[in-house]
Amino acid sequence: MASVEFRHCRKAYPPRAGATATEVLKGIDLAVADGEFLVLVGPSGCGKTTLLRLLAGLESLSGGDVLVGGRSVQYLSPARRNVAMVFQSYALYPHLSVAQNLAFGLRRSRPRRGLRRIQDGLAHCTAPWPRPLRVHSRREAGIQRRIQEVAALLDLGQLLQRRPRELSGGQKQRVALGRAIAREPAVFLMDEPLSNLDAKLRGETRLAIARLQKTLGATTLYVTHDQVEAMTMGHRIAVLHHGELQQVGTPRHLYNQPVNLFVAQFIGHPPMNLLPATPTPTGLVLDGQALPLSERLRATVAQRNYPVATAGIRAEALRVGAPRHQEDAPGSLAATVVAIEALGHEQLLGCRLAPGQQLAQVRTSANLPVRLGDHLTLTPDPDAWRLFDHQGKALTACQ
């Protein structure tokens, strides 16, 4: 396996029909450690797949460099980069069996000459024949052993003679993974590999990929737009937006400490509640209601003198209480339930805050008796606020 490094990588497509050039990546600097599982997330068109294709050699750089194992691969052909890519559409060869799909990359991994190529070809053709009639090839014997190893690893042993049209979506996905694994590349690239599967199969395959990556210890770059995949699979998450890297960190770090409003809204389900707020010496004023801040956050605002414009808080940091007069509930917000999303083990309440009519989502127990139109009080955790300035940047001292 090997580390991966993107050094100020840029990608721009030339203008067409009088339009300006399209800049997809705007100077990406990103390092992936040997054996790390890095998840790339972001909205459609942010450059996630383009970044993988630059690493695989399927696109050329407009600027910068890409390194694998400390060596630049910018001018190497895709076949010489020692990376394997699993595509969203599986990209299996329909006329080949599962075994032949698994072996496809192995048979083209090394150049051969003259008689060696003829011997290997005859060995491949005569493999179904009775043993005395087969032509022996050490290379073909090694390929067959590798196919059996990968088939055992991915539970494909009973499917080796089937064609892709005879497989389910989950089976096709395992074959696509197996084809990448068979080559034992330095880096695995996965471009939304689970997007075509149903919810149940997606969950099962997600666990299988995470377990497989841990077993192989493979350096993996994984592109997804699914929040659950990003938060549960990756060692770290890299968030892209408009071709720029917004933040890189562990799932927990990005969830609790987003560096800007985009990451706060993109990471987590539901997204962070963002409310206009004004700081005071003792806390915040939100919709005309004074709310306390923890001593840590008060010190941050006072020492840094940041112009706080937005206060963010996660849905689970709002405690639901019975409706009371505002004089009897200092530090709380009056709210009306306008939406209920039952999730089995919990429920998400959509609440409209009074008097500013701001919307906030609250995570609460599934056993809480609540109906549309109910009036509640929401009490925020004073230490759970994330504060942002007028430009949407988080207060760095809160990190």
The biggest beta sheet reads: 6 strands, mixed
Number of helices: 10
Mean pLDDT: 87
Bulk shape: elongated
Q: Which strand order do you get reading across the main beta sheet?
A: 6-7-8-3-9-10
What class do helices, strands and sheet pairing give?
Answer: alpha+beta
Low-confidence runs of at least 5 consecutive residues: none
Radius of gyration: 27 Å
How much of the sequence is in beta strands?
A: 25-35%
Number of strands: 21
What does this protein structure show overall?
- The protein is of the alpha+beta class.
- It is built from 10 helices and 21 strands.
- The chain has helices spanning 48-56, 98-107, 114-125, 138-153, 169-182, 199-216, 227-233, 251-256, 261-266, 295-304; strands spanning 4-13, 22-32, 37-41, 63-68, 71-72, 83-86, 187-191, 219-223, 236-241, 244-249, 273-276, 278-279, 283-286, 289-292, 308-313, 318-321, 333-342, 346-353, 359-365, 375-380, 386-389.
- A 6-stranded mixed beta sheet has the order 6-7-8-3-9-10, sandwiched between helices. A 5-stranded antiparallel beta sheet has the order 16-20-17-18-19, with no helix packed on it. Strands 2-1-4-5 form a 4-stranded antiparallel beta sheet, with helices on one face.
- α2 runs parallel beside α5 (169-182) and α4 packs across α5.
- The mean pLDDT is 87.
Key words describing this protein structure:
single chain, alpha+beta, 399 residues, 6-stranded mixed β-sheet
Question: In short, what is this structure?
Answer:
The protein is 27% helix and 30% strand.
